[in-house]
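Hey everyone, long-time lurker, first post.

I ran two proteins through the pipeline my lab uses and got sequence/structure pairs for each. Pasting them in order. The first:
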Amino acid sequence: MRDDLTELETVISVLHNAVHAFQDVHKPKGQWYHPASFGKEMAQWGLNVNKNGDIVSIDPDTFSEVLERIGRGSIRSELLDFEPVEATDITTTSPSAAEYVTKANITKAKATVNKMKKWSCACNPPINVRCAVNLTAYCTECNADFEKMEA
């Protein structure tokens, strides 16, 4: 966890990660990150999340009860000032320099480049294979070496 979080943000972060831990242990592996069940579980703690798992709102009644149960009722007043933010990347000169967080522009990740190269033999039609490294092999049909094809 980041070391620049307020006490309230730390509690929220711990609950968020506790729900992840619960799902990692008790849910099918293909569904553990932020499926609808994650949002439902977070809502039971008074934390409403979007499909990315970011807090979009807090149910003050439910979350105040949670704070009381975990011995942190003294920070309920921080709920009034809490503004949920959607951030994908926070860049600061040092962790202590982050006094506040601004909303980051969210962009889709670029597709990864396929590192597999196409190699073909002299058969008609050619037999194609893909390999990420240099290939030293020959076709057992035409006895020709596989040649790297240009993209």
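...and the second, right after it:
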Amino acid sequence: MPTTIRLPEALKTRIAAVAERAGQSAHAYMLDAIASKTEQDERRADFESIAGDRYEDITSSGKTIGWNEMRQYMLKRAQGVSEPPPKARKVVR
């Protein structure tokens, strides 16, 4: 279904130049740009949702894993060392 987008002339010129360098039509370039931005925003929304859920878990349980402990665990994993993950503990303030 056709959609009309009114673009300022300066932007049209920039798009045409970049699309030509990319070996695409301006239309194809704009479709790719819209798809890319849409995917980026969807991934950001997913990330924020997961982060919100995890923060809710921390605040409701009061438990978390300290950065230094998790960092050491991740470094060992990266080196191929297999060990159980650290346990979450109550946050001490």
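Reply from user beta_strand_b:
Welcome! Quick read of the second one: The mean pLDDT is 95. The chain has two domains: 8-51, 62-93.
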